[in-house]
Automatic annotation (TrEMBL):
Keywords: Acyltransferase, Pyridoxal phosphate, Transferase. PANTHER family: 2-AMINO-3-KETOBUTYRATE COENZYME A LIGASE, MITOCHONDRIAL, CLASS II AMINOTRANSFERASE/8-AMINO-7-OXONONANOATE SYNTHASE. Belongs to the class-II pyridoxal-phosphate-dependent aminotransferase family. Its cofactor is pyridoxal 5'-phosphate. This is Glycine C-acetyltransferase. Residues 43-401 form the Aminotransferase class I/classII large domain. Coiled coil: none annotated. InterPro entries: Aminotransferase_I/II_large (IPR004839), AON_synthase_class-II (IPR050087), PyrdxlP-dep_Trfase (IPR015424), PyrdxlP-dep_Trfase_major (IPR015421), PyrdxlP-dep_Trfase_small (IPR015422). It comes from Candidatus Nomurabacteria bacterium RIFCSPLOWO2_01_FULL_40_18. The keyword Transcription regulation does not apply. The keyword NADP does not apply. CDD domains: KBL_like. Gene3D superfamilies: Aspartate Aminotransferase, domain 1, Type I PLP-dependent aspartate aminotransferase-like (Major domain).
Amino acid sequence: MYSKKLTESVKKELEALKEAGKFKIERELEGAQGPEVSIAGKKVLMFASNNYLGLANHPEIVKSAHEAIDQYGFGLSSVRFISGTETIHKTLEKKLAEFLGTEDSILYSTNFMSNLGFFATVVDLFGGVPSGTPTTKSQVAIYSDELNHASIIDAFKLCKKENVVKRIYPHGDLVALEKMLKEDEDKGYRFKIIVTDGVFSMEGYLAQLPKILELSRKYGALTFVDDAHAVGVLGKRGAGTPEHFGLHGKIDILSGTFGKALGGAVGGYVAGKKEIIELLRQKSRTYLFSNSIPPSVVMASIKALDLLKDMPELLDKVKENSEYFRNGLKKLGFNVLAGEHPIVPVMLGDAAKTQEMSKKLLQKGLFVVGLWFPVVPEGAARLRFQISAAHTHKQIDQALKIMEEVGKEMKIM
């Protein structure tokens, strides 16, 4: 009886998504990730991957993964603190910390888990009001950009509500952020944390880190940056948004992933002061109760950091390709968000139209994904192109030609 009610409710919800043109379809790749992929027996151009440096199927990455399986096996069947830590895990954590300019780092299964793990640990450990205190105020205040990643939003939900004050400021509005910080100056919060994405994944916008860091120091707050879409892309050495702005080693806490530019598999991290990292090793539930990252991923991630150091031209190439594609779209007359990141959004507004265009592009050999509410705000549907260092100018020109054809057909340009 009750299961039937649930099933009927689920069916209605799914039908509503389909009618609104918001039903997501998973395209099945028939081979490795790259600038071209095979879908349903057809080669298409891939412009919908976080494979910014083209390392997802790089022969050196693949070789390292194979060698790791030969030497260390497939998996460890354990969490880190029981029998799941190998020397290579500690090697990667040390190498990553040196790369990011922090004292230490800790590996998580994904960056989603790293964000959940950090905030739940810190807020619930230090945010509780001591017994006998004549106040009911929460003792950790978090100031978060409204466009921060879903993992950050969900991390706040895991925190006990009595332990945290959540202050959401309009995207990039640092005047509003400072007003909040000023209002909270004398409220006696134990900690204040300003939280921002380094690169906002739906827009490709960069956080204003210099000003954010200035505010954090002025008002005694910690700065937390989720740099998932920046590491391996921005900065002279690819060390991310802090390096891009000349703030390398100056951000209190960084989180990120090996699942995008750095090999494209899985694996997240938090990097910062050694005491904070040690606390997470002792208390973070998403670390303590998740299996260790497989040896193949660990060794491939080490190799990815080595390749980034040995092949700095990849950073130049992805930047050049991004500018070339962005300028090409503008010349064709598309509404393109400004930016310098390889995320290049083409704004269409309507969800159904976005989904239709994505389908037509794929039929002509161009794979790009449409995004709509609730992934982006209502009325702000878009095609999100993602450029790679592995793309050739010929492939980019082909993509632009297909965009022109479909744009004219749909009367969008």
